[in-house]
Amino acid sequence: MTRMIRPDLAQLPTYTPGRKTDDALVLASNETSEPPLPAAIEAMTSAAHTLNRYPHMATSPLHHAIANLHGVTVNEVTIGCGSSSLLQQLILATCKDGDETLFAWRSFEAYPILSRIAGATPVQVPLDSHHRHDLNAMADAITDTTSLVILCNPNNPTGTLVTEDELEAFFARVPDRVTVCIDEAYLDYTDDELTPDSLGLVRRHPNVCFARTFSKCYGLAGARVGYMIGSPEIISALNRTQVPFSVSTLAHDAAIACLNNPESKAERVSQTIPQRHRLRDFLTKEFIHTSQWNLTEDDIPESQANFVWLHLGEQSEAFTDALAKEHILIRCFSGDGVRITVTNSKETDQLITALRSIA
């Protein structure tokens, strides 16, 4: 039989989303528990009447809104079907067959999948003992075939943050020919005093870009829209690797509505961050001292995202199953740890009650 499909795809792992059931509290996919902002729902309802027409391509009103938000030109902005899609475009734009992508591990599990789909070779550099990017080891791992470095900041699934000073020191060791993307899907949940000036980094390093998403605090995970900011050279290349009309009219108009309502986003974030602190305090001050699970405070790093990481190792599946019996669904990374999404006070109450039950 004639071979029709690339044989290497048979060895490619598929992305595994968090579990969902109707009778459980879902804390597995880092979604907000709230629906989209009211302004976004209104915008999508209005846009539904225009779906007989193709959506915007090239420079759109959303491009201009993002450019105004960050104080950049529109040729430094591109939008895509979520930040994951933009990362796929970036890999296609920077890597030839056999070129290397470099990223920390564990990090966002789509990185090796997206790399191999594009024909690139993923290189994984272990996190350090504090569950953070080991930037020195990553710099040492750059080779003549490295084309792209991806830094998830805050890191998914550990929630740990790389500071601006640490990023600067790392970029000083990265050759200009290597593109670096900072994946900032969770940056909205970072404490203000710790938030890196990503735009300043892009200005100082033309080989650096950053990606953001509307999936998290804006509540548009189901709409699929994100954006990337970088030099005109990087953005032009991304536009060439984009699937035409990949951002729907509904997603486009909803995203603009979100940007026009920053106070609503800020309110949501301000409700989530205290629950993150509350959950980690419970885990480190009560749970690890009274439970059957072999955990120390070092296994639960300080998070700057809307989730908390528990480095449970071989206990991960049993812990996940125990919570599932309490109708709480979390994300299990078998043999490594679990990630628990943080949402609002009511759901944190339910989670803590369940954790006490499985202690």
TrEMBL record:
SUPFAM superfamilies: PLP-dependent transferases. Residues 24-355 form the Aminotransferase class I/classII large domain. It comes from the Bacteria. The keyword Ribosomal protein does not apply. Gene3D superfamilies: Aspartate Aminotransferase, domain 1, Type I PLP-dependent aspartate aminotransferase-like (Major domain). It holds the Pfam family Aminotran_1_2. Its cofactor is pyridoxal 5'-phosphate. GO terms for molecular function: histidinol-phosphate transaminase activity; pyridoxal phosphate binding. The keyword Cell inner membrane does not apply. Keywords: Aminotransferase, Pyridoxal phosphate, Transferase. One of its GO terms (biological process) is L-histidine biosynthetic process. Homodimer. This is Histidinol-phosphate transaminase. It comes from Corynebacterium kroppenstedtii. The gene is hisC.
